[in-house]
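Practice problem: predict the structure.
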Amino acid sequence: MLMLPEDHKQAAAIERRRKFEEERKRRIFNDRQRLIGIDLAALEQQITEQKANEEEQHRKDESFEEQCIRDAKMALLFEKKFEEEKRRINEDINTFRAIYQRPENRLEFDLYDPDGLKKSLPARLLDDDPRCGPSSAQIFAGEDLANEDRRKAQRDQYRSWLEQQITERRAADSDRKATQKAYDNALLARDRRASELERMEQDCRRRLSEANLRFNKALAEEQAFQRRRDEAKDMEDKQAEIYNHLTGDMLTENSDVANSSFGPNRKIQYLYKGMTPEERNSVRKEQLLQIAENKAKYAAEAQLEAEWQELIGGTDRHAVLKDRELRRKQR
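Answer:
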């Protein structure tokens, strides 16, 4: 009653090993059932049990993975619902604040209203403002009561000054236009002279271009002749090079160029093109000969091993028979 589940498992494992050892002892110490060599039936049983255990473990792993996936999906679903509920609550709180908790609805809003000065009345609206008493310091003796008349006189004076400036500017514009017209006439005369000089220059350039064209044409003909001659020479050189490559040792794969001067069986690595058919046939014959020799050697070793096994088996059987005969005589 005081045993834990782990103790039960351990006791069952110990009992299972004890039964296995007893069966093994009965099988080993029984002269009629004992076999010399490997117990094939026991090995097959062990393999079967191991495969069954592996399949059971694989099934448990798959079941555990499926359960983990289901739990993860449920956790994601719950988290999504929690986030949606949290967002909805925050939206409700913000809506309530925007409707019922506005700053202008507070009792002390007039203390920190940013537009308080704009909403308040100025200290003095008119000269007869009833709020402005002797102690308000807003109305003083000696104030400019003729402010409107003085401003009207100033506006008239500004108007006369402006008309005078307009008259002077018109006169200056007339003088400027006359000066501009004289300047334009001078520019027109200069442009006509420049056009005549440009025409003469273009005539000179045309003649110079014709002379350059004749010179370039003669030079192009000479260069074309030189180019044809160079191309013909290059073609001859290329054909000679192609012929040398086709008849050379590189493309013909002449195996004699790879022979080294240090010995008949030594080759130059960067010139070696591979073995000749005769060399490959010789190597193949040598390989077949070695294969035949190895097969004969392996056959002899196998026959010798079989003879040894037969001798050992006969000796074991003879020893068993002798042992049985000795025991029979003793009984």
